[in-house]
């Protein structure tokens, strides 16, 4: 990711084979923006005119209930109607309808300055494959609620950078640009506000060259369509779902590791944190070990699904896949189960030798049951991973 300063590089003109095909498509999603849409379309067309290139403005009307579509068309835009509601749905329809080599994205609420279009196009001409604006140091008074500015956007952007190492300063800026040729690689699918996060995540996973520079963010015109908590949760949910390491692998490993330590120390009668622990601590450790193993197995299956069905790439998972086979999992699971069964058999034999009296091997019984359950989990999860791997090419 690079940060670009304002530049005056002139964009290339379309070649002779592309005569009549616009160089730039400005795509604007629109839902009930009759108050603003004409101003946005006019500003975009004027910016394209000053650039001296062939361009178009595509308004993706999201089944508005006002005169947005008609007003946009009267202002000079080409309008495509997407009846399925959603920020992502509108953009996907707009992308499909656009024809330009470069696509510039901006909202229809007057929060973004369409005079920035040349800077975005120049960044693409300089080699970037995607360009994102950074609003956070140039927010005009009243343009962004404090909850979004100081809580929501920093937290979500921070998590996105932590999970996917994008290095983006403002992952939810609505003014962006990208090369048309990268759309197929991005394979964008989400229909709601999480579309903004998906675009950045997919660009990072595809190792696109991402550029970023500061832009201003202005107070919007009309009524906001954003729902702070609902849309914030959709972004967070999307980040977690697309990061199996942080959602499954890390928590699962912590739970399983902690549970194993507790079972070993308590089962062996050793002091733990300076004191001896009893049966209840052993049960708690066993539960942590079992739950952690299950969460780890889910994480591996999520990785396999992402790799085989969604084209995801993860170096760690690829190394594990190359090193371990179904038989390794079956052997490990069988070993855990066998140890648990042997311990259970010892308990039964002791019970029989005492004339079927009351059992007093509670600690050993908990450990035996835990090992048996973990062994079964590993055994059948290995088969599930192998079944998912049938998709492998």
Provide structural commentary.
- It is a single chain.
- With 393 residues, the chain is of the alpha/beta class.
- The chain has two domains: 2-241, Spore Coat Polysaccharide Biosynthesis Protein SpsA, Chain A; 244-391, no CATH class.
- The protein is built from 13 helices and eight strands.
- An eight-stranded mixed β-sheet has the order 1-8-6-7-5-2-3-4.
- α5 (146-164) packs parallel to α8 (228-241), α9 (244-267) packs antiparallel against α10 (279-309) and α12 runs antiparallel to α13 (362-388).
- The longest helix is centred in the C-terminal third of the chain and has 31 residues, at 279-309.
- The two termini are 32 Å apart.
- Residues 1-17 have low confidence and may be disordered.
Short description:
The chain has 393 residues and is α/β, with parallel strands linked by helices.
Instruction: Tell me the β content.
Output: 5-15%
CATH fold assignment of the largest domain:
Spore Coat Polysaccharide Biosynthesis Protein SpsA, Chain A
- How far the N terminus sits from the C terminus, by CA atoms, comes to 32 Å
- Class from helix and strand fractions: alpha/beta
- How many strands in all? 8
Helix content: 40-55%
């Amino acid at each position: 990711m690079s940060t670009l300063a304002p530049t005056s590089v002139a964009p290339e003109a379309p070649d002779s084979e592309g005569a009549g095909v616009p160089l730039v498509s400005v795509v604007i999603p629109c839902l009930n923006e009759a108050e603003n849409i004409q101003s946005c379309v006019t500003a975009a067309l004027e910016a394209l005119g000053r650039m001296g290139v062939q361009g178009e403005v595509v308004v993706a009307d999201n089944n508005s209930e006002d005169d947005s579509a008609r007003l946009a068309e009267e202002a000079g835009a080409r309008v495509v109607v997407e009846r399925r509601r959603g920020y992502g749905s509108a953009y996907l329809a707009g992308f499909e309808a656009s024809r330009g080599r470069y696509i510039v994205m901006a909202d229809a609420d007057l929060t973004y300055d369409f005079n920035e279009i040349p800077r975005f196009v120049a960044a693409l001409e300089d080699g970037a494959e995607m360009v994102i604006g950074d609003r956070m140091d140039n927010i005009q008074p009243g343009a962004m609620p404090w909850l979004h500015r100081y809580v929501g956007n920093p937290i979500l952007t921070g998590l996105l950078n932590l999970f996917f190492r994008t290095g983006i300063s403002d992952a939810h800026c609505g003014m962006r640009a990208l090369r048309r040729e990268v759309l197929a690689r991005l394979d964008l699918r989400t229909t709601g506000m999480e579309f903004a996060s998906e675009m950045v995540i997919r660009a990072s996973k595809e190792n696109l060259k991402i550029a970023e520079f500061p832009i201003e963010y202005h107070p919007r015109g009309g009524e906001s369509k954003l729902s702070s908590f609902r849309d914030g949760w959709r972004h967070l949910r999307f980040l977690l779902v697309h990061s199996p390491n942080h959602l499954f692998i890390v928590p699962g490993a912590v739970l399983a590791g902690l549970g194993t330590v507790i079972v070993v120390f308590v089962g062996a009668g050793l002091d733990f944190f300076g004191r001896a622990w009893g049966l209840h601590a052993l049960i708690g450790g066993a539960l942590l070990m079992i739950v952690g193993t299950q969460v780890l197995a889910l994480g591996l299956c999520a990785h396999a699904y992402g790799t085989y069905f969604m084209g995801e790439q993860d170096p760690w998972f690829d190394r594990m896949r190359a090193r371990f086979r179904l038989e390794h999992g079956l052997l490990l699971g069988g070993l855990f189960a066998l140890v648990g069964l042997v311990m259970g058999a010892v308990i039964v034999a002791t019970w029989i030798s005492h004339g079927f009296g009351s059992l007093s091997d509670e600690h050993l019984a908990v450990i035996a049951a835990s090992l048996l359950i973990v062994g079964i989990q590993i055994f059948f999860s290995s088969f599930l991973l192998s079944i998912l791997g049938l998709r492998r090419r």
